[in-house]
Amino acid sequence: MDITSTTPVLAIGVSLVAAILIPLSRRRPNLRETWTILAAVIKFLLVASMAPEVLRGNTLSFSLWTIAPGLSIAFRVDALAEVFGLTASFLWIVTSFYSIGYVRAENEHAQTRYFTFFAVALSATLGAAFSANMLTTFVFYEILTLSTFPLVGHKQTTEALQGARKYLTYLLGTSLTFLMAALVLTYHEAGTLEFGPEGVFGGNVSRTVVTVAFVLFILGVAKAAMMPLHGWLPAAMVAPTPVSALLHAVAVVKTGVFVVVRVVVHLFGIEVLSQAGLGTLLVWYASFTIIVASLIALRQDNLKRRLAYSTVSQLSYIVLGAALLTPSGITGSVLHIAIHAFGKITLFFGAGAIYVATHKTLVSELDGIGRRMPFTMGAFTLATLSMIGVPPLAGLVSKWYLVQGAIEADTWPVLLVLGTSTLLNAGYFLPIVYRAFFVAPTRSAGGREEAGIHEAPVLMVTSLCVTATGVVLLFFAPSIFLDLARLVVGALPGGAG
User: Fold this and answer.
1) Which of 300, 391, 394, 438 sits most deeply, having the most CB atoms within 10 A of its CB?
2) Tally of domains within the chain
3) What is the mean pLDDT of residues 51-77?
4) How far apart are CA 254 and CA 224, in angstroms?
5) How are strands ordered across the β-sheet holding 59-68?
6) What is the CA radius of gyration of the chain?
7) CA 51 to CA 79: how far, in whole Å?
8) CA geometry: angle 472, 92, 18, nearest 5 deg
9) CB 378 within 8 A of CB 463
């Protein structure tokens, strides 16, 4: 049942209100940051309040502006939207506390601007999550790009500005070139951009048109960071670490893969993609990205860049699962949106804590750091093991469903891809853990070993411990996300096959 509700609009708008109050409070940092935390908590509570209705199989919708038949600015919260909304809104609370600790410890300049654009970015993220159609998605997709651009270039160094320009060029260039063309072609052929369980393409649309539109969509959603349109992501690592966490776990890349899943499942539909063979094409494209990005990650000594290439690889698990077009594959894809977010944000929080406490940025500099930063590196280790898929951690759950999805699709080479990727995950993550705990600490200039516990500020360490706890809890109690994922599959024709 479709229920008309203003709650999706309120959830989107609350951080826009904060984006007005934050600059007005620029001379009172404690009040400014109170608005940030308050908006984050209210946003999460609004999103969580919709979960009971969604879990009952209902949707909540609100139409803002009808432009033409089949073309409107409208919002709709279904099971897929709720998974992304819950994940993003909860992690914004944690990221806000972490950011306060980080910017104060580093005495960052332009803190008011930083928190303002953070708030706008989270509104754009939920706007994309709760969009009822591809036009609304496109609008918020672009707002997200523009609002995160100042965050990427926040440090205003030459390197930061170059990274920000590359970020903007990739994301705006692909969306205005490919994604806009895909929207125009789809609306011309289908007469609508509304999401639905059977997609928008009827039997009278030629396979050539469907193929061209699909390729344009995949190329246009560069936020999914699939190769070769991934270059903006490592370049954006010049940003402060909380921004990197936002990019990799909460907002930008998750919006990218979320849009890809929407396009696959609710714009084209399982049947159309299966008949056109486009699911198989996307499976191999995602598999290529998974393996190649992992191989590149192996060679990165800079910790944030290693994590960035890990993200490029792990994001494509989500795309791969959806492209399998099977119940378990789609279930694993939806689960990985949340599970990857908790793991990857923990890793970036850890990298930021290491930098604040020691100013170290290279993997080769981390010898013995686990002895000085046991809480940080303990949480970091849990997140790495989850990424690899080691029980009892959440990464195993989504990977299990992806494996099941490959078996259901009778696509046995995908099992080899997933197995190889898991070994590569271990290859670039475990050396960090080994250095941290099993290699003797580095010596100071006077020849003495660095001794004693020296963690980052408590807000930062507490935040990363919270997200690491989530990595554990989502293994033992994944029920809310698993139930929502099953609702996504159950709403499709034939339960996705």
Assistant:
1) 394
2) 1
3) 92
4) 7
5) 2-4, 59-68, 71-77
6) 22
7) 8
8) 160
9) no
- C-alpha count within 13 angstroms, C-beta hemisphere, residue 299: 4
**pLDDT higher than threshold 70 for residue 276:** yes
Q: Is the peptide bond before 242 cis (omega within 30 degrees of 0)?
A: no
Q: Beta-carbon neighbour count of residue 143 at 10 Å?
A: 17
**Percentage of the chain exceeding pLDDT 90:** 69
SS3 72: strand
Q: What is the largest CA-CA distance in the chain?
A: 77
How far is it, in rounded angstroms, from Cα 30 to Cα 481? Answer: 35
Three-state DSSP state, 1: coil
Whole-angstrom distance, CA of residue 108 vs CA of residue 154: 9
Q: For 405-421, b where at least 16 C-beta lie within 10 A, e where not — what string? A: bbbbbebeebeebbeeb
Give me the torsion for CA of 151, 156, 158, 162, rounded to 10°.
Answer: 20
The model's pLDDT over 138-180, given as tens digits with 9 standing for 90+, comes to 999 999 999 988 888 888 888 888 888 898 899 999 999 999 9
pLDDT at 72 over 60: yes
Question: How far apart, in Å, do the first and last CA atoms of the chain sit?
Answer: 23
Type and span of the H or E element at 60:
strand 59-68
Strand pairing class (2-4; 59-68): parallel
* Helix or strand holding residue 76 (H, E): strand 71-77
Computed from CA positions of residues 12, 199, 331, 276, in that sequence, does the dihedral angle turn out positive or negative? negative
Reference 385, options 433, 319, 321, 337; nearest CA is: 433
Structural domain boundaries, residue 278? 2-495
Q: Are 195 and 264 in contact (CB under 8 A)?
A: no
pLDDT in tens, 404-448: 999 999 989 999 999 999 999 999 999 999 999 999 886 654 445
Over range 324-329, report the average pLDDT: 95
DSSP summary character for residue 2: E
